[in-house]
Amino acid sequence: MALKLSKRGRVDPFIALDVLRMANERAMAGGEVLHLEIGQPGGGTPHAVIEAAKRALDAHAIGYTEALGVPELRHRVALHYRERYGVELDWRRVAITAGSSAAFLLSFLAAFDASDRVALASPSYPAYRNILSSLGIAPVDLPARAEDRYQPTPELLDREGGKLDGLIVAHPSNPTGSMLSAEELGALCRHCRERGIRMISDEIYHGIVFGHEPVTALALDEEAIVINSFSKYFSMTGWRLGWAVLPESLVRTVECLAQSLFISPPTLSQLAALAAFDARAELDAKVDLYRRNRDLLIRRLPEAGIRRFLPPEGAFYLYADVSDISNDSEALCLRLLAETGVALTPGTDFDRARGHATVRISFAGPEAVIAEALNRLAAWRQAAG
Q1: Fold that domain 15-45+280-384 belongs to in CATH
Q2: Cα-based distances in Å from 257 to 67, 70, 260, 264, 354
């Protein structure tokens, strides 16, 4: 007799990581790959962070920490909000987590029950939907429009019709790179509070912006959950470290969950991350690189027949309509990888209903890689007619 398999585990694949696996298989077989599929910051981890990690290793300071993280780092994150946003924050509301992924999991468990309904704009980061589904929480896709820069609006929430328990907003957004102004985020916060909807604000790409500075939901709604990460602006992807700023009412709940689910965040990563806040000159130089890559894409993508996209306002992704080339983005990305070595992510990862006509292009890598990828895409398009 076959043994039972959990329905909770039947979530959609994270296609960007599937593409990464296929790209790595190609590379292992001797094929060249230009990685524009994954959000991996270029240039490596800041020097000061590496040195801090070495000092921690030499001191053998790698035991367990408190479930919510070392107090020194929680204090430093709270100070970051004063320095960056002018927001005074009690450090005890900061939970250090094993990547932002753990922050989402802990927050969803603390704030929602099975069968609750949580809205998210579509297109959006696929792990939101998959984590919610694995917990028995219903993700509610809001078909966002290009005219609204693919962000949710109060009107879009009202059109959904059913009762909502939560809303996830991402600004800058993955995959579109779009942002919310203070007025737009404030309108969403007010709308949610009036209707008893919990706001979860994904601010993972704060710091990587190409125009006006982002606003944190902490400045607008004390009951919002704000999630951030050391992976993107701070360039510490493999260190697996993030944080959540929680309403006081959820701190103890999240602490108890973290004690059993994770014991503690990675100690070495926490001690190293203390130095990340003092590496801004190095980190801002990376943002300048992303800006140059963004401008290069905007200028040259039409040569490859890709003309319909919104210029990213932040993060390091460009979300493009490729329906002039193909209405099967998964097949298109497989073909491009096989024929050009350029790895892109199909839009079906982010929008199951409309993503067949879109792709996400990551411009986090070296400028030379972006330029060569554009050369190959333009040559491929010309050869294909």
Answers
A1: Aspartate Aminotransferase; domain 2 (3.40.640)
A2: 9, 17, 6, 11, 36
